């Protein structure tokens, strides 16, 4: 095995972990679609290198925290689950930064998370965050469709509006690398 910050399981191990943790089948299927979509995005990037293995496994494990909750805390719980198992801190960060378009300190505090930034910083974190927003369950959607659905359900809150803008910026950044 490599150093702790480098340990990334293979696809079969990741899928088996989701089963062993009793992640609901619908969430496992969503995670597989997010991983596939993230790889599809990564394959189009030609202007820089991306870690496709990290993207695939990060996509599969991004919702591992849903074993405990489906609320915002699933991001932190997922990071904790992966750290406790000795996996790469890169995978843990993917869990922690994929919610909405990432959350800044102010928004994290508003939704009851510890006051710190949960913003995707690496290209791999951004790709998975974007791919997750493009999958409603197992169905591919546009960013507009995804947020319109959330606006209808939760209202046009400041957090959702900021998140939509952040995701659109992430999408533009990624497209500029294609």
Proportion of strand residues: under 5%
Mean pLDDT: 95
Task: Report the order of strands and helices.
Answer: HHHHHHHEEHH
CATH topology label: Hypothetical protein af1432
> Can you tell me the residue ranges where pLDDT is under 50 for at least 5 consecutive residues?
none
**Helix content estimate:** 55-70%
Shape from CA axes? globular
Total E-strand runs: 2
Give the number of helices. 9
Whole-number radius of gyration? 15 Å
In this structure, how is the largest beta sheet organized?
2 strands, antiparallel
Largest sheet strand order = 1-2
What structural class results from the helix and strand content? mainly alpha
CATH architecture: Orthogonal Bundle
**First and last CA, distance:** 33 Å
The first-level CATH class is given as Mainly Alpha
How many domains? The number is 1
Record the SSE blueprint.
Layout: H1 11-20, H2 25-44, H3 52-61, H4 74-84, H5 89-97, H6 105-110, H7 123-133, E1 135-136, E2 139-140, H8 143-154, H9 158-175
Antiparallel strand pairs: 1-2
């Amino acid at each position: 095995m490599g150093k702790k910050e480098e340990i990334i399981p293979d696809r079969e191990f990741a899928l088996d972990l989701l089963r062993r943790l009793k992640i609901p089948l619908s969430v496992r299927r969503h995670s597989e679609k997010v991983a596939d979509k993230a790889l599809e995005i990564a394959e189009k990037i030609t202007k820089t290198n991306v870690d496709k293995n990290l993207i695939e496994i990060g996509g599969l494990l991004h919702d591992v925290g849903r074993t405990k909750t489906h609320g915002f805390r699933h991001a932190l719980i997922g990071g904790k689950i992966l750290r406790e198992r000795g996996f790469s801190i890169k995978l843990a960060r993917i869990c922690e930064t994929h919610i909405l378009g990432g959350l800044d300190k102010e928004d994290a505090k508003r939704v009851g998370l510890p006051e710190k930034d949960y913003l995707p910083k690496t290209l791999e974190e951004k790709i998975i965050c974007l791919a997750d927003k493009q999958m409603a369950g197992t169905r591919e959607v546009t960013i507009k469709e995804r947020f319109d659905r959330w606006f209808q359900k939760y209202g046009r809150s400041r957090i959702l509006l900021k998140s939509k803008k952040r995701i659109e910026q992430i999408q533009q950044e990624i497209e500029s690398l294609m």
